[in-house]
Amino acid sequence: MWANQVVWDLVSDLTDEEFDRPFGEHVGSIRSRYIHMAEGLHSWIHHWIADEAQPRPDFMSMKRDELFQELKNLNQRIIDMLQEPVDKEHEIETKKGMMRFSFEEFFFNLANHATYHRGQIVKGLRLIGREAVPTDYILYRIDTL
User: Considering the entire predicted model, what is its pTM?
Assistant: First the structure.
């Protein structure tokens, strides 16, 4: 949550053109990275809690602040899930057949996925000539003392 906020504080100052500007093949814009992260979180949460009936919000049509607020809400749901012990596994179909994943693996995947895409967003900020900041764990500890 801290790392997302640190990066968002920079992104929130972008012009709409900067927010929507594509900055690389297969990467898209900063907006598209946030949409991708929100879609992924929404899908994984609803797969995990077996609530496939929950419709996916239209992330594409959300205004910038609405998109970030939804991303924060989805992340908070993950944090809330961490508060209760989860011992079930989730099975997904893969190219190699059905595979089972523990909640710990699911959580690790989400953290890794967010880190990867925050890195793309930071790279995008640099490519458009904006300031970028590191979000290393040590900096988190120092910042939140």
Answer: 0.86
For 93-125, what is each residue's pLDDT tens digit?
899 999 988 888 888 888 899 999 999 999 999
Long-range contact set of residues 41-49: C-beta below 8 Å, sequence gap at least 24: 41/71, 41/74, 41/75, 41/78, 41/110, 42/74, 44/106, 44/109, 44/110, 45/74, 45/77, 45/78, 45/81, 47/90, 47/92, 48/81, 48/90, 48/103, 48/106, 49/81
Q: Is residue 122 part of a domain?
A: yes
Q: How many domains is the chain built from?
A: 1
Domain of 75?
2-86+117-143
Which pLDDT tens digit goes with each residue over 4-45?
999 999 999 999 999 999 987 777 999 999 999 999 999 888
